[in-house]
Write a structure and sequence with these properties.
2 copies of one chain form a homodimer. Chain A has 142 residues and is mainly alpha-helical. The first copy, chain A, has a domain of 75 residues: lambda repressor-like DNA-binding domains (434 Repressor (Amino-terminal Domain), Orthogonal Bundle), CATH 1.10.260.40. Chain A is elongated and about 45 Å long. Chain A starts with 10 loop residues before the first helix and ends in a 13-residue tail after the last helix. The relative contact order of chain A is 0.12. Chains A and B meet through α4, α5, α6 and α7 of A and α2, α4, α5, α6 and α7 of B. Chain A binds a DNA duplex (30 and 30 nucleotides) through α3.
Amino acid sequence: MVRDAKSFVNTNELGRAIRRKREGTGLSLRDVADETGVSASTLSRIENGTGKPDADNIARLTGWLNVPMERIMGGGGRNAEGDENAPVVYFPQEAMPDIVEAHLRADRNLTADTAKALSELFRVAYAQFSHPGSDARNRKRR
Amino acid sequence: MVRDAKSFVNTNELGRAIRRKREGTGLSLRDVADETGVSASTLSRIENGTGKPDADNIARLTGWLNVPMERIMGGGGRNAEGDENAPVVYFPQEAMPDIVEAHLRADRNLTADTAKALSELFRVAYAQFSHPGSDARNRKRR
DNA sequence: GTACACTGTTTCACGTATGAAACAGACTGT
DNA sequence: ACAGTCTGTTTCATACGTGAAACAGTGTAC
């Protein structure tokens, strides 16, 4: 049960990523607004970490960044209590192969068979490398 | 771009997936509410496709489903005009290896080196299988 | 019968994310 | 000097997602 529901989506990282890319490419807020459909005012708020963008805008912006939502947002059940701003693994790590498989199945470049084969390959490889001991959980990065 | 900003996050699929899993496991709305931290009323609305859940609840629920957000939600820039309810690829397919890599890097079960090795493996395998023909040149560049 | 416990749905007051527009600066050209 | 055009930020009214609680069924026990 998701220990007491206080979890927030980490939008600070989103904001930082956007500002980084925006300034890196020399675009203004209004430029990005035109490209993404998110208004400049909202964009400004997001970059400065004020408030939390809604689902549509998160989708538009992660799309613009070409980054998976959960990578940038973190959130949900497993947000490490301690470390604030690190992008977090949203899913139980055991689910990694499932995540990859889902992505593969959604990939229109692949046939169903190929997607299956690729995820199988990934599953095997992952099993090989992941939690090498029985207590990989002690590894508290950072 | 972004077509005229009318893109919505596809929450219908989210709702369907939740109802499927919930009924499949014989849970009530209030059971799921306890597990996820999303209220039963909101849960009901989501399952019935009324309104759009906010970012926090999407995170909680995709986490509960163990499914990547963009797989279930679709959304953003690439939502296929034609087919409504199909889960869509949110990212350009070319980005698949990057997506997987991001996920791997966020995986605390893996050391940085291992994550790198795995994503390299994946990248090679994917390149092998993806767009086998030459008609994959629909790509839009911005 | 009538209680009681459960179900999913809807009502309600409240908080807040939103975009348009107003705003404050920084620069440039005239 | 002034005017014009850019920048990011903030104000404002509006829209809407939210959870608690009320509601409407349905089933079971007594």
